Amino acid sequence: MTTRPTVLITGASTGIGAVYAARFAQRGHDLVLVARDQSRLDTLAAGLRAEHNVAVDVLQADLTRLSDLQTVEARLRDDARIGILVNNAGAAQSGTFIEQSTDSVAQLVALNTTALVRLASAIAPRLAKAGDGAIINIGSVVGLAPEFGMSVYGATKAFVLFLSQGLSLELSPQGVYVQAVLPAATRTEIWDRAGIDINTLSEIMEVGDLVDAALVGFDRREAVTIPPLHEGERWDALQTARQGLLSQIRQAAVAERYKA
Q1: Which residues contact 91 (CB under 8 A, 6 or more apart)?
Q2: Domain ranges of the chain
Q3: pTM exceeding 0.85
Q4: Is the domain covering 6-230 a CATH 3.40.50.720 domain?
Q5: Which residue of 71, 77, 102, 213 lies most exposed, with the fewest beta carbons within 10 A?
């Protein structure tokens, strides 16, 4: 009998993280659930244990606090049962860049990028040594679109995409699967927490639909999964164009168009 790897999920108390927890529990995976809200985590864990007969550990942590983050990192390094990391914890905020405070911007970057990369760094060497495992990083289509006007949030999600693609190139030959998931607007509490009225958004994906689509991509071992993208060829064309651009970048010579 094959033992399924334990899945550690950040931002697991609600929204995308909670649905990932339910879906992996349905698949028979034990879980480690990480979030700030202890009571919500306990309630979710009790329900998943009862319904799916899986082991669920709860790890209360604020990933913007270094001590809490280091506790989760240690769990990822030391617990050989954990074979899948879902880097889901994240936040957004309302307002333009000049309206956002320096402290709030720094905290957003700390959660969306620093915590995510530290957790990936904590587990990746162990997975590579084992020759197996997966890292799922939740990004956003906003990371492709500065036109959407969410400059800092979008920049953090562009980081998530780039990091995921780079890690995929580095780790996939060693047996570790890395997936970037790029949702569009999804019906979660992130909007309320950011001070954004969800009713002002014209189209919203339901969170269950988002995670189910992401798991189809996971099972297919896609490097980048974009559930709201209806024509997958558009992404392929973008990557082809990017590769073509790279072929034209020559480090030794200034482009003719920049010569006086």
Answers
A1: 107, 108, 111, 112, 190, 193, 194
A2: 6-230
A3: yes
A4: yes
A5: 102
Q: How far, in whole angstroms, is CA 87 from its chain's centroid?
A: 4
The yes-or-no answer on residue 129 being catalytic is: no
| Set 20, 129, 157, 258: catalytic member | 157
Question: Tens digit of pLDDT per residue, the chain (260 long)?
Answer: 458 999 999 999 999 999 999 999 999 999 999 999 999 999 999 999 999 999 999 999 999 999 999 999 999 999 999 999 999 999 888 888 899 999 999 999 999 999 999 999 999 999 999 999 999 999 999 999 998 888 999 999 999 999 999 999 999 999 999 999 999 876 666 656 656 666 666 777 789 999 999 999 999 999 999 999 999 999 999 999 999 999 888 778 888 889 88
Kindly state the tokens that stand for 204.
């919203």
Among the options 153, 177, 258, 259, which is catalytic?
Answer: 153
SS3 assignment for 138-166: ECCHHHHCHHHCCHHHHHHHHHHHHHHHH
157 is catalytic: yes
Q: Alpha-carbon distance 12 to 22, whole Å?
A: 10
